[in-house]
Amino acid sequence: MIVTIDGVAASGKSSVSSGVAQALGVPYVSSGLLYRAATLLGLEASLDLHAAPHLLTLLGTHPVRLEPLAGGNRVWQGERELTDDLHSTRVDRGVSVVAALPEVREWVDAQLRALPEPFVAEGRDMGTNVFPHASHKFYLTASARIRAERRARERPEDVPAIEAALQRRDELDTVQSAPAPDALVIDTGPLDLQGVIDTILTRLR
Ligand SMILES: Nc1ncnc2c1ncn2[C@@H]1O[C@H](COP(=O)(O)OP(=O)(O)O)[C@@H](O)[C@H]1O
Ligand SMILES: Nc1ccn([C@H]2C[C@H](O)[C@@H](COP(=O)(O)OP(=O)(O)O)O2)c(=O)n1
Q1: How far is the CA of 201 from the centre of ligand 2 (A)?
Q2: Which of 68, 74, 171, 203 makes an SS bond possible with 27, Cβ 3.0 to 4.6 Å?
Q3: Which InterPro entries match (predicted)?
Q4: Given the CA of residue 8, which atom of ligand 1 is nearest to it?
Q5: Can you tell me the distance from the alpha carbon of 74 to that of 82, in angstroms, rounded to the nearest whole number?
Q6: Which CATH class is domain 2-204?
Q7: Is 35 within 8 Å of 92 (Cβ atoms)?
Q8: pLDDT 10s digit of each residue in the chain, 205 long?
């Protein structure tokens, strides 16, 4: 069984997926972390993030591994754990450029499709492109202001700066962010985290 939870930036995908996965007793898979890992490594190597060939060479010679767990995903490059470095403002700024590269998307998709079922997968295109045959699909939205207020609790910037950055990323991510036609769209604005998780679990049961 595969459950997909897609949605816009900071709509609650990873928190909700973790809650749903724990209730189901399966791992969840955070696809965005692989895009973030590619971005971090590209930045650290001072690569041009618009150019795929060097980035792909880097990812090929120093493989990155996603460890999907129900409580939270971890990302490794060899013995080095990258997880804590993936949610910086610097990576936030660069990740949409890297995620627009078809070669990087293929690199991520191949890793995701190799994972053993069952799991909950979250990202932008889990229900459309990567797992179109998933049995249950969900899509989370909320206004940019609400998302910025939530994310402000995790980032050093103020709400207006975060809101502007989220809107910029929404625009850059538009291509791969359309909901699957068979996804249930949930506006998380009026709901708390548990409310979103319960909406999904009710649908699944
Ligand atoms: N429905 C909700 N109500 C209140 N806070 C939420 C809700 N959903 C998510 N959050 C909080 O918003 C922040 C962003 O959620 P996160 O799961 O990281 O989103 P995403 O994976 O879509 O970027 C987290 O601090 C999370 O706890
Ligand atoms: N399946 C996916 C997952 C993420 N992405 C892109 C789009 C996002 O800007 C970045 C980071 O994704 P992530 O889910 O970690 O980002 P947010 O937590 O929603 O801000 O990667 C994508 O293009 N396709």
Answers
A1: 23
A2: 68
A3: Cytidylate_kin, Cytidylate_kinase_dom, P-loop_NTPase
A4: 22
A5: 8
A6: alpha beta
A7: no
A8: 999 999 999 999 999 999 999 999 999 999 999 999 999 999 999 999 999 999 999 999 989 999 998 778 999 999 999 999 999 999 999 999 999 999 999 999 999 999 999 999 999 999 999 999 999 999 999 999 999 999 998 888 899 999 999 999 999 999 888 999 999 999 999 999 999 999 999 999 8
